[in-house]
């Protein structure tokens, strides 16, 4: 009689034979490619132990897709070394919606190389090679991977691998080293890689994949290290899911704000100015102005006070606030000014380093402490459209959504401890309301709590976290808790929004700062006459005007709702004799603040319509002899539908009402 062990499967106790593997346990469940024992993801060939709490991992789950993609990255690396034997291996982790692998090769990969690699990967997949895990000592790993210098470096870094490089934790960790062999059905080892796993049972379990592109990447993300070739790919649980992903990518490319920015004449990034620094063209500036004016109006209605602060400051302020110590590598280099010299060139008065402003909070804090404050003045809500500058690496600069100069719609609220919960609830309601006004309605949030290493009193952390969570519950906003993921000085809420094609964007942040008031010695006079520290709430609503604008361009595919459109109406005469009729209509529209033009070019009417459609103008007002005789215009809407012979008064009323109600046309 075989020995039995007791395990827990999906919350229910079960008795199985000793030596049972996860593969045997879940043999009758389709789509299971790995298992979770406790908190650990494991291969299906893991032998179960008495007392294990076991769950299946489906290939179409978040963890399952990550395992699928990491396994596909191994197949890619094997294919590369099959076709390019001198290639040296970097790292190959799963990432959102796909994977990558870095290689040191003599020549960059070409599109033709990717096609060859895909075919070789298909051959490996058809061989049904097994992913076989084995533990190795550091010395054995070095001996087996002697020809792989980057792997040897990771072995040496394993004790700190979680922070050694992006993706490095997929290969090594602080525990034992493991190697995965790709084993053919006859038992021959076809290829091997240093890896923590887990992996699919075999290569045949890869249903659908595609190699996407090649990029250059510095080893371990350091520009002083060798530049490698990074191949990006994607893998999915079936061909239908892969095709849907590729269609989403194609739609995202059509909506790319950088392309639409040029097509619609909204903004540009001149080389003469520098990467990540945008100039706004008249049409883009119009949309931006409307966004800011509406936001300003809503803030004033909600009790905010507007402030302005300089673009540059002495280094001492950011040293005292802590920003210089923690974020110096992300700042532009300082400008050294104000030194004075005597006639002999000797320094009579030392100079001073000035930094371009990376954030507004220290300056807002100085405004608060510029005079004594009473509890009667709190909460005080300061707000600024503040231009800030951060030296993003050139490899991560991405149009308006990741730039080097941007305008934060930045608010800092100073309140008493007793006001904190109500203020956070009110803030979150305000944030969601304003985002909805711009047509964004699908939200979820993350609450990031106290990390292992933190500063401040535990009771302050507990109060802040409880107030943030209460605000989320009051707003009935779906949220997840990121345990220990808060900054060392503050817990926070991050609000994410899904756009028209389902992509999630992190937008607004509400952060309870427990340290800046201490660092900058901020106090108020309490009701009993004592001096107390206020709570300070950081609140960025759009994140930045530039990034939010880029997100809106992609969300609407450039077809802004009528209230935001840079040109809301274009008058299109059928012939020259109808121009004056349309000009009279446009003058009346301008009296209502409508942004309107008349196309008096030499183009034929159909070409004028195509031009307006290309520019995504919400309304086209056409006029011919019949319209002139009846005192009317003919509507042509952005979707191609038409409404002929509309009296001028009715046409104006329709447009003005659509703008007032901020509807989509």
List the helices and strands and how they pair.
Blueprint: E1 4-9, E2 12-17, H1 22-25, E3 32-37, E4 40-42, E5 53-58, H2 62-83, E6 88-89, E7 94-95, E8 98-104, H3 111-126, E9 130-136, H4 138-144, H5 149-156, E10 177-183, E11 189-194, E12 208-218, E13 227-236, H6 239-254, H7 257-263, E14 267-268, E15 279-280, H8 282-301, E16 305-306, E17 312-314, H9 315-321, H10 323-327, E18 335-337, E19 340-341, E20 347-349, E21 352-356, H11 361-368, E22 380-389, E23 405-415, H12 420-437, E24 442-448, H13 458-474, E25 479-482, E26 492-498, E27 504-513, H14 516-519, E28 524-525, E29 531-532, E30 535-540, H15 545-555, E31 569-573, H16 579-591, E32 596-598, H17 605-614, E33 619-623, H18 625-630, E34 632-637, E35 642-647, H19 648-660
Parallel strand pairs: 1-5, 16-22, 24-25, 31-32, 31-33
Antiparallel strand pairs: 1-2, 3-4, 3-5, 6-8, 7-8, 8-13, 9-10, 10-11, 12-13, 14-15, 17-21, 18-21, 19-20, 22-23, 23-30, 24-26, 26-27, 27-30, 28-29, 33-34, 34-35
Please state the second-level CATH architecture of the largest domain: 2-Layer Sandwich
**Number of structurally distinct domains:** 4
The total count of helices amounts to 19
Overall body shape: globular
Poorly predicted regions are none
Strand content: 25-35%
Question: Strands across the major sheet, in which order?
Answer: 16-22-23-30-27-26-24-25
Major sheet details: 8 strands, mixed
User: CATH superfamily assignment of the largest domain?
Assistant: Bira Bifunctional Protein, Domain 2
N/C terminus separation? 75 Å
Radius of gyration: 30 Å
